[in-house]
Amino acid sequence: MNLNYLDFEQPIAELEAKIEELRLVGNDNNLNIGEEIARLKQQSDKLTRDLFANLNSGQIMKLARHPMRPYFSDYIDRIFDDFDEMHGDRHFADDAAIIGGTARLNGTPVMIIGQDKGRQVDEKVKRNFGMPRPEGYRKALRLMETAERFNMPVFTFIDTAGAYPGKDAEERGQSEAIAYNLLKMSSLKTPIICTVTGEGGSGGALALGVGDYVNMLQYSTYSVISPEGCASILWRTNEKAAEAAEAMGIAAARVHELGLIDTVIDEPLGGAHRDYDATAASIKAILENQLAELQGFNLADLVDRRYDRLMAYGALESGK
Amino acid sequence: MSSWLEKIVPSIMRSERKPSSSVPEGLWDKCPSCSAVLYRPELERNQEVCPKCDHHMRLSGRARINVFLDEDGRQEIGAEVEPVDRLKFKDSKRYKDRITAAQKSTGEKDALTVMSGKVEGVPVVVAAFDFKYMGGSMGAVVGHKFAMAVEHCLANNLPLVCFSTSGGARMQEALFSLMQMAKTSAGIEKMRQNGLPYISVMLDPCYGGVSASLSMLGDLNIAEPKAVIGFAGRRVIEQTVREALPDDFQTAEFLLEHGAIDMVVHRHEMRNVIARNLAKFMQLPEVARS
Fold first, then answer.
1. Is the per-residue pLDDT at A320 higher than 60?
2. Whether this model's pTM surpasses 0.95
3. What mean pLDDT do residues B280-287 have?
4. Nearest CA to B140 among B173, B171, B113, B112?
5. Cβ–Cβ of B87/A165 closer than 8 Å?
6. Measuring CA to CA, which residue among A262, A254, A231 is closest to residue A55?
């Protein structure tokens, strides 16, 4: 089993393995196998298209968590220039689960902040698998307030299983750190554009997710609780995670249909991990357009617009 | 001391209460903490605080407001707002059926009750969660009514007090419920920008999306004694860090020690403490200490 392929992609993996074998044979003799390779390649592409046209929420959840999925650190230099990382919340520590700093988008100075799960084992440990502690959220807010002072738009990139559920995180006020970001982001006087690139895990994701535009990559997810958590509470077994994912509607397309995000950003065939450059280019194109639009607002109108958007979430009928 | 007690006792008496199963004719109750057998009318007179061990038992949202607000000049806000099953959510039960069952058992349309009135003469809007309604979970109705409370405060220059007790976001409303965290927090920021105070009182238990939004954002954060408050639940943390947690972990006293809340206040003193502080924030004449 090829680890770069998920379980439901195994038929594709088998075809790709055959193609690879034929290529090796082809190097040995001059049999006419080019045609055969092309035929298999076509078959593999068609299979991928068919499979990816009908993904269920459980499969999308696996893609969002794919070990090869591009992380924030993969996007930084592909979307922005001139990045300088800033560290620390100025109170307790630097939380590597969130990376942030100044950069430029096509020359415009901007602040970029994103969660990163870490690729190799040591990096995963350093970044706490992308699960921020309170100091991570406080660092993020410090950077946003800096951005506000210097009229720099803020871009956030969301990819976390959730805020870290640890003893130290509780002691230092995980709830307060998240809550305070929600409060301050609602009135920050500079454009904020948020993009969910992988997992949008609950409050830990939302704490970077209050903005003027909220985007999701096609195979990313956004949910109030992990499907496993939801299943273990409501179904009393986390084996029902896929069912819970379906019921909650965690996939980008569904969240968009419900009116809770603005844009779904298309991914390359087979998912973002198949082509980092193409994925980054798609994101960049959307961010450029949205920023141009938001720069047309004066700041007071921008903040009013954001407040109205927040108040519209799940608005209901009231008699008076 | 006795003056405000006299004022609130009749209102408690009026609140409906089903007889507890193990107790004949609903006259006796057992304290869940010290197991003392307690005479129900006396327990009610004591605001559901155990007279033997001082354990603060849970109150419904409406009962909470009843013991908190002055008798006169109360007006409910948003009583008509009903939950909507936008996702047609179904786990082992349909969300629709869960709503019906919760409404029947609590007599409330959803988990948050909002009322305007006075506390020791100080005008105020108060919101209170009902833990018995689906674990006090925050869905669109809770967010909407909280936003209505904020709007009422802004329009009438009033302070807001919220008593929260909740398991967190309501899973059956999925991402709609998550977004209520952003919505309620934005409302509180609006209060701040208009110079209106917001006092958050955390009750046992207070977790997840509610704790990580409106509960922690008070100009004053208050908790009742021994209330358990946190972001992640104790069991989840123990599984994550694989170590035993101290007994007082996530209690009100633990939060006080770690700087997350301003004070731990006994239920009997809640009215006076809040009235005194609101009067100072609102530049009103001094409220006498009781």
1. no
2. no
3. 98
4. B173
5. no
6. A254
